[in-house]
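Figure S7 source data.
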Amino acid sequence: MSDPLKDAPLISGELKDELLALALEAARRAGELLRDGRPADLGVAATKSSPIDVVTEMDIASEKLITGFLSERRPEDGFLGEEGASAEGSSGVRWVIDPIDGTVNYLYGLPSWAVSIAAQKDGETVVGVVAAPMRGETSHAVLGGGAFLNNAPIRVRPAPPLSQALVGTGFGYIAERRAAQAAVLGSLLPRVRDIRRGGSAAIDLCDVACGRLDAYYERGLNPWDFAAGELIAREAGARTAGRPGEPASHELTVAGSPAVFDALQPLLEDLGAWHD
Ligand code: LIP
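Tokens for the predicted L-MYO-inositol-1-phosphate complex:
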């Protein structure tokens, strides 16, 4: 006998469709602004955790565009944005927004940056959209509905042995943390095919989802960095988590095709990838 409360869908198909449509349009508009409106003399507007943790005027403009678009259409929703958007909301839906994931890449004119928008219902991510305008790509997923790249279904790559796995990672903005991350990397690198450091967690997670990476891990991500990409990777068949038995978090985020994930996660635990 099914339990109607336990088995009740977290969210109706109609609400999922509405949230996905809004996230896709908001990401499209923000991506267009960022791609076409980038000033030639773009500079640093402010710094956060360190002198290299930067914010540009375009980060702020992108977040303003996204929150304005969404709040106009769903005024009761909550917000959590990297550049300060914060509202409790009363609908149970919260938007988790990285207006530019890969800010340093964007600042330097490198193409690997994205707009990442996730919708959470009662704390669970139910919709994720990652738009990478310079790649001409938008990835998306709805909880239980699979993952897509430019509306074509995507799946993780068939798992190679860890020694032949291409693994993405990233590094923090604090020198002491980077030193610890380099030590972990030094131990890991000889045990995998190679490492890629793209500079955008959202894109890295989408690359796991579509088979361009076998796995990805990083310590120190914020919810807005991984909320959308983690759902997209999971819906594409990846295993995602933090430390063993823990969900993806600031402490550690790991994603990969199941067999690669199962080999990588315990190794990262042994190497202490979860602490500085
Ligand atoms: C970035 C992450 C990336 C990490 C960078 C930075 P931001 O987010 O997506 O994975 O390695 O250090 O945190 O700051 O560009 O939104």
